[in-house]
Amino acid sequence: MEPLIDLISLLAPAFVAGVFISLVHVPLGQEVLKRNIIFLDLAVAQFAALGMIAFQTFTIFDEYSLVAGYGRLGAGLAAAITCAIIFHFLEKKSGEYQEALIGCAFVLAASVGLLLVSNSPHGGEEIKNILEGQVLWTSWSHIIFVTPIFIAVFIVWTFFQNKRSFLFYPLFAITIPFSVSMIGVYLVFASLIFPALAVVNITRHKTLAGILISIASYVLGLMGSYLFDWPAGPTIVASLAFISLVVHLIFRQGKIED
């Protein structure tokens, strides 16, 4: 009984984080797919990561201090909003080149981030943590801090459907930095895109189906990480890929109505 309690105690914060990530990322990911801007999430996430790296590089605060924690989030938020604003204005002007420009922005942000940490003795570890994330070590205090933001985004997206064209970029920019700080760039992308691809052949309740797929993937990934001592972020990404592929193959014969 005691090992089970220890397991629940260890995995519960990460699971709760996964639930809130799923609630917000699945509907936004479906919008990304609908707009055919697949790499926007990677670009915005990478700009958020760049903001966090820049703050850590150019400030004198202890990296474990409260000021540094909020400062990194603020810098990531500012960078993500800037990136989203730019692509919002370019959306109608860049035409067929929009995806190429988004890809260029991602590569540029990633390269600048590598340059900033090139002389840091812990630079490689910083990049690894931002890309892979530390979802298994998410704290309850962090969850309590981001939960109102995620709930607000979910409510606004759900109940203001006629404003989604305008709201998409702001909500996306607000969400991504907090997600990156919890789960890393790779898992942010996977949480947005894999569930969206899984339900393309379902015509009703797509968002609910995507959320359930995402939550199930977090459960499977966290259990696999615990049982096999694998890094949690990549394990959840693999779980998202596997479950999404299975669901997609089940419904691949045609569009299925619930």
Name the average pLDDT: 87
Could you say how many structural domains there are in total? Answer: 1
Helix and strand content put the structural class at mainly alpha
Envelope shape: globular
Which CATH-level-2 architecture? Answer: Orthogonal Bundle
Give the end-to-end Cα distance, rounded to a whole number of Å.
40 Å
Radius of gyration: 18 Å
Report the helical percentage.
over 70%
List the helices and strands in order.
HHHHHHHHH
The CATH homologous superfamily corresponds to ABC transporter involved in vitamin B12 uptake, BtuC
CATH class: Mainly Alpha
Low-confidence stretches: none
The beta-strand count equals 0
